Amino acid sequence: MADKKLVEAITSMEDDFAQWYTDVVKKAELMDYTSVKGCMVFKPAGYAIWELIQKQMDERFKETGVENVYLPMFIPESLLNKEKDHVEGFAPEVAWVTHGGLNPLQERMCVRPTSETLFCDFYKNDIQSYRDLPKVYNQWCSVVRWEKETRPFLRSREFLWQEGHTAHATAEDAEARTIQMLNLYAEFCEEVLAIPVVKGRKTDKEKFAGAEATYTIEALMHDGKALQSGTSHNFGDGFAKAFGIQFTDKDNTLKYVHQTSWGTTTRLIGAMIMVHGDNSGLVLPPKVAPVQVMIVPIQQKKEGVLDKAYELKSRLLAKGCRVKVDDTDKSPGWKFSEQEMRGIPVRVEIGPKDIEAGKCVLARRDNGEKIECALDAIEETVTKLLDTIQTDMLDKARAHREAHTYVAKNMDEMRKILDTTPGFVKAMWCEDQACEDKIKEEMAATSRCMPFEQEKLSDTCVCCGKPAKKMVYWGRAY
Amino acid sequence: MADKKLVEAITSMEDDFAQWYTDVVKKAELMDYTSVKGCMVFKPAGYAIWELIQKQMDERFKETGVENVYLPMFIPESLLNKEKDHVEGFAPEVAWVTHGGLNPLQERMCVRPTSETLFCDFYKNDIQSYRDLPKVYNQWCSVVRWEKETRPFLRSREFLWQEGHTAHATAEDAEARTIQMLNLYAEFCEEVLAIPVVKGRKTDKEKFAGAEATYTIEALMHDGKALQSGTSHNFGDGFAKAFGIQFTDKDNTLKYVHQTSWGTTTRLIGAMIMVHGDNSGLVLPPKVAPVQVMIVPIQQKKEGVLDKAYELKSRLLAKGCRVKVDDTDKSPGWKFSEQEMRGIPVRVEIGPKDIEAGKCVLARRDNGEKIECALDAIEETVTKLLDTIQTDMLDKARAHREAHTYVAKNMDEMRKILDTTPGFVKAMWCEDQACEDKIKEEMAATSRCMPFEQEKLSDTCVCCGKPAKKMVYWGRAY
């Protein structure tokens, strides 16, 4: 049985979800605060999750022709200023470098909050002809936005992300890439992170500074709040005109390129915690669990127990499992609690009696189930179990989201839902920003997206009662 | 035969080695200048090499128990100031952030030039007991040093690197880790980059700001100049005392930890270019070549040629080769030149006659040799050939280094060697910094290291004639 002390160290999610979240982040040793205000440290257990996300997302990128590059972290002020909407969106929240060594700079530079302007400056020289297109570049790096309030993984002054920046010969190609990457993100969230998402388009109010269209994937957290989990932007030729990015087309005329950008961040780790976690701590989907199987020997000082544990470890390693033996001198109960707190998907319990009987016990982290397993069959049983857990976690998250997606026909209905059973609220909208503003002001909910899968819930806008044009997902959000 | 036009686009290395280097970097599309002064862009071909270096070095790190983390990119000024020697070494060359958003900061922060101070600040809280030791953390990131003169890969204001930072219970453990990582770097350079290195200790004049001892690996470039290719530092307990990093040991007393740090950078790519490159361009060792095999179809419009090329590609891919077909509409000669410029280790030439004869031609990039290969045997022939090239490149580089390592007994001999046949100069030294200063002033050569493999070349210092204490490698360096 798991030791209670470690579990008692975290607040229950029903009592205080925000505190539960912070407790899990700290007790699972994912991240910690630093003396650099607003910046966090990724500890080994947290960074290892990011590495697994990077590896699997990068493989998917490369299958679609993405090439990785690295551009400078600094943006000269004059460059940031070139696209009007973009600079208005970002200038208030950038960090400014004003001195290099002992001397003031002639022109100050900001630390990149995002790199559209740098990619444009680069593409301007790198693209000459239609033969140079498309450019489908991406970089993995950190960016800086001077946030006032910060929360681990969700919002910090510096965060890790990937940012893709592409240039295309036609508007159609740019739109196709924008949607392709949104679909890639959605599949990644479902297949790797076991998080179901709603795909849709942002309203004009919520779109990216400088974009013609922003598409988003929206996930629902356990507490009923929404989390924007990835975005993909179509810039049209707006940036190309501001930066003068032209190419000679097949017909020998000079044309502006069409551009996109798309990004996901370490927020995805926050999403995973808040979708799958429980009152014993983290619950990791097997595909991103740095340790998938923890073998806990029982009565490990008895002859043969540790040897058998190491043997099982080698056999599972050989099958490609990420597996460890906890052979420290802590009690089994404490080891169980630690494995649960860290979200390790499968625990193998093996003691002298088990060995005698040629079996062991497998404990699932996601639902607590215990399974007896013949030692002879451990490889196939565990690998199958990891697949099952991955699938079951997605199903469970999807069921939760479906149970917490509601329909509102008027403002009272919407308010009641948000105040009593928070979740996604589907409601019709007239496309007037005044209604969006009013909903935000009155109930602190924002339009999450206009989903690709539109429904006609009623004829009138949930807010003003005028004819409705779009079905929108609304919610309170992180 | 290769087309001459592309080759003519680069300066020959005998005419102007520095220009040859810049030409290769640009024509092989590894890197380019940006409008951010002193900062470069890593283009896909350059970044892909770095990804292969990262992957293979990171695997080696993890085998020795290294865990990856990520710490903030900013260092508050008060933190940088805590260790006296360290701040003196770095303060003159950091970039300062003075404003966040629209407001001046209360305390300015620099962009990390290296992260000892941040790791110390983190370890101070994270380490309590001997059970928490050792900490063997590493991060892959970029750092900023406000250099005045910059050169692609070798020196730029922002560069990519890894920095390991460890904390240990005893001085012996710290020294062992310092040497372990130096050895890991040396093996990596030889086995992966095919670059032989000299391992040794830096003199006090050349050691890292704040270190008790700095160890280095030094490589010799084709032009006879030295390149410091990786360093490993033992800090003793100096930083621990400055930052108050203490732990309770087994004997229940409070002790200071002993620390190390070690780093390698994208310089390694510069080293590879300057060790292996030739007048046709880049020459990449197979283990870090993003494309190892380029298949060039001859008369590709003839029936069956492209199909056969794609078939060979699939068969090589299945064996784990990184392989491409150049099926563009360029001439074969131009394709040959491009493959050579980009340093792709093996070219497969396949045309209608070859297909009829059931063979193809393999051309080695490293020595130009052409080999006839039966199509049936292409998998084993190519994989074996890649191994052979990897080994031969190391042998060739080692032979070059040995041919360019000299002995000098006095200043005249040293000067003559450096002016006529540049290379490493082995010479005895009295350990007085005045002699080091004099050699640097008179012949622009620095002490590269005091090699682990000491020899007694004579009894007296090469400079002052007093009794010698150490054999030193001297050289002009990048």
Structure overview:
Chain A has helices at residues 4-8, 17-27, 44-63, 77-80, 84-90, 116-126, 171-191, 238-243, 267-276, 305-318, 332-341, 352-357, 378-403, 411-420, 433-443, and strands at residues 31-33, 40-42, 67-68, 74-76, 95-100, 103-111, 135-144, 158-168, 198-201, 213-220, 226-236, 246-248, 254-256, 258-265, 293-297, 323-325, 346-350, 359-364, 370-374, 405-407, 424-429, 446-451, 470-475. In chain A, helix 3 (44-63) crosses helix 7. Chain A has three domains: 17-276, BirA Bifunctional Protein, domain 2, CATH 3.30.930; 291-387, Rossmann fold (3-Layer(aba) Sandwich), CATH 3.40.50.800; 405-475, Translation Initiation Factor IF3. Chain A is an alpha+beta fold and 478 residues long. Chain A is globular and about 80 Å long. Chain A is 36% helix and 27% strand. Chains A and B meet through strand 2, helix 3, strand 3, strand 4 and strand 5 of A and strand 2, helix 3, strand 3, strand 4 and strand 5 of B. Strand 5 of chain A pairs antiparallel with strand 5 (95-100) of chain B, so a sheet runs across the interface.
Overview in brief:
Two copies of one chain form a homodimer. By secondary structure, chain A is an alpha+beta fold.
CATH topology of the largest domain in chain A: BirA Bifunctional Protein, domain 2
**Top CATH class of the largest domain in chain A:** Alpha Beta
Biggest interface between chains = A-B, 51 and 51 residues
> Gap between N and C termini of chain A, in Å?
35 Å
Quaternary state of the chains:
homodimer
What's the helix count of chain A?
15
Shape of chain A: globular
Q: Say how many strands of chain A there are.
A: 23
The structural class of chain A is alpha+beta
Described by strand count, sense and barrel closure, the largest sheet of chain A is:
11 strands, mixed
Instruction: Return the average pLDDT of chain A rounded to an integer.
Output: 96
> Spatial order of the strands in the main sheet of chain A?
3-7-8-14-11-10-9-22-23-21-20
* Gyration radius over CA of chain A: 25 Å
Count of the separate structural domains of chain A: 3
DSSP strand content of chain A: 25-35%
